[in-house]
Amino acid sequence: MYKIAKKHKISKQKKYEIIQSLKQELTKSKCIIISNYQGINNEQFMQLRKNLLKYNSKFKVIKNKFFELSTQNTHLEELRNYINNAIGIVICKEEDKIIPMIKYLLEYSKENPKLKILAGYLFDIKADSNKIEEISKLPSKEELIAKLLGILSTPIRKLYTALNTPMISLINILKAKSQKTN
């Protein structure tokens, strides 16, 4: 057994490279969600990872110590308080995909209670699981733009109607007058 464990031992240089790579990936990402995944079987895990790709996101399983070291001296240092047991992090690189990805994650965690959302860093704020759930209820960027366009176009439509109504009335009066004279 000792020989097997020795084969998987990672050198200090390799650990340093892993931590630096992870640190760079974490600081460049738009959203990081920390979750506890203990008890999820391999099939469920692969399905979760596959579906997260739709949101340009990925689920990474990392050692707690690697996460602690990679967040050291960064804006993500506060997230270290949420590390316990087996953690996985979801990393999203596109701001537009954050809310749909969070909605999917929460829906998945309701279907599979073994996945627990612990905390995250999104939209430049640290958020616990309750805040993440509140954020998931927000409409997406596309929905907000559509609502804004609807609100902005309503006064213009009303102005157009108000300006055209007298002209249409005048045309109808002239048309009726011309039909009377004939």
DSSP helix fraction: 55-70%
- Could you spell the SSE succession in H and E letters? HHEHEHEHEEHH
CATH architecture call of the largest domain: 2-Layer Sandwich
CATH fold category name of the largest domain = Alpha-Beta Plaits
| Portion in strands | 15-25%
Based on CA inertia axes, which overall geometry fits?
A: elongated
> How many domains comprise the coordinates?
2
Describe this structure as you would to a colleague.
The chain folds into 2 domains: 2-138, 2-Layer Sandwich (Alpha-Beta Plaits); 140-182. The protein is elongated. The protein is α+β, with helices and mostly antiparallel strands. The protein has a 5-stranded antiparallel β-sheet. The longest helix has 41 residues, at 141-181. Residues 1-5 have low confidence and may be disordered. It has helices spanning 2-7, 12-28, 42-52, 64-71, 98-111, 129-136, 141-181; strands at 31-36, 57-61, 87-92, 116-122, 125-128. The chain contains 7 helices and 5 strands, in the order H-H-E-H-E-H-E-H-E-E-H-H.
Question: In brief, what are we looking at here?
Answer:
With 182 residues, the protein is α+β, with helices and mostly antiparallel strands.
